[in-house]
Amino acid sequence: MKVCVVGTGYVGLTTGVSLAFLGHDVTCVDLDQAKVDMLRGGKCPIYEPGMEDLLAEAAQNLTFTTSYEEAVPGADVVFVAVQTPSAPDGSPDLRYLRGAAESVAHALDHDFTVVVNKSTVPIGSGNWVDAILRDSFATREDRPEGAEFAVASNPEFLREGNAIADTLYPDRIVIGSDNPRSLEVLNRLYRPIINQTFTPPTFMPRPEDANAVPLVSTDLASAELIKYAANAFLALKISYANEIGQLAAKVGADITEVARGMGLDQRIGSRFLQPGVGWGGSCFGKDTKALIATASEYNLEMPIVKAARDVNSRQRAIAVERLQDELRILKGRKIGLLGLAFKPNTDDLRDAPALDIANSLLARGARVKLHDPVAAERFRAEQPELAPYLSATIDDLFADCDAVVLVTEWAQYLELDWSKFIGLMRNPVVLDGRHVLDPERMRRIGYKYLAVAR
């Protein structure tokens, strides 16, 4: 099938490259010429493990351009995967989506094209995009006779750092449309993944337990709500673990054991029960905020979702409070933060807990030292005010510190020879912001071990 993907961010690029790998003829369009040039050269503008390898394996079916006129004509499916950042009131800013829909409408020429909302968009956006497409298409003097199109929703459930596996071996695929023909087209597009009939990439073999992938085929509004409801639930699950963690610390319970005991219940499951400094990234914060904003349009409140957001925000403050409780005075203290990206295996800094913790420490008069094995380059560009605090090496970060906080659980940090660094510190205090270090081992080495929920 011929596919156009609008936008080459995390979602658009992963979608386009994966579909090209499966054998579809894919053209990705992005208005950023520098990004397009980089992709044409086989280089990935984002850090995503395996993406450059998949780019190479899919190259014969993949084209990158800045022109809608090159990408859209003849396409069976057009994925719109542009950014939808939060507006000040919490609702998604849809100007990029509107611009993309108008540009797609001025290039449509196929007998039937499915225009797919791949971006996370508010409930009802499918109808809104359909109206924009039809209004813009109607203004064309050169509009081709017989060209038809319909809108569908196909929300993504990708985890940054694991996006390729989540695309090729997903838990489920959700497609929504009020047009039965659109559902048939998308069913055909995803058939190799649904049936797991494709030859896996050389660097990412099919999991042994991979089976046929469930397909949820539904209406537009339901598909849109599934995305928000799923992300809000995961955010709530993390916040719940963190709230229980604060109680565990008060009563002397071990939150890691409590979470393990809860997670063994198959009705609950162990994933997203890890306590720590909370969630970040581009999805949970934005989607929970948007869900609350959407509900308010219908005179509904979302107290559970609001609570999840409040707890998450509090976790970052608790990390700073734990340091203050231990050191008594933060003014003049030197604090090192290990990890800047919001999670391992990505360089994404959006809503990263490290940013709030660093700024809070600076506001209290502390001196900070920062390190990340992957995100440092992006950090310099996106956080120029904090960039001077970056440490070039881990040794530099530990040197003369009064405390070190593990913020992002990069494998590089978990595999450190921690005994090597204790002599570099002024005070050997370690705050485990993710509950991933062995407390007894750290104490044997000589560290004063702290944790957010211990």
TrEMBL record:
Protein name: UDP-glucose 6-dehydrogenase
Domain annotation UDP-glucose/GDP-mannose dehydrogenase C-terminal: ranges: 336-439
GO BP, sorted A to Z: polysaccharide biosynthetic process; UDP-glucuronate biosynthetic process
InterPro entries in the cross-refs: 6-PGluconate_DH-like_C_sf, NAD(P)-bd_dom_sf, UDP-Glc/GDP-Man, UDP-Glc/GDP-Man_DH_C, UDP-Glc/GDP-Man_DH_C_sf, UDP-Glc/GDP-Man_DH_dimer, UDP-Glc/GDP-Man_DH_N, UDPglc_DH_bac
Keywords: NAD, Oxidoreductase
Protein origin, superkingdom: Bacteria
Enzyme active site: C283
Organism: Actinoplanes lobatus
Top EC class of this enzyme: oxidoreductase
Family matches, as SUPFAM superfamilies: 6-phosphogluconate dehydrogenase C-terminal domain-like (SSF48179), NAD(P)-binding Rossmann-fold domains (SSF51735), UDP-glucose/GDP-mannose dehydrogenase C-terminal domain (SSF52413)
Key word Magnesium present: no
Reaction equation(s) it catalyzes: UDP-alpha-D-glucose + 2 NAD(+) + H2O = UDP-alpha-D-glucuronate + 2 NADH + 3 H(+)
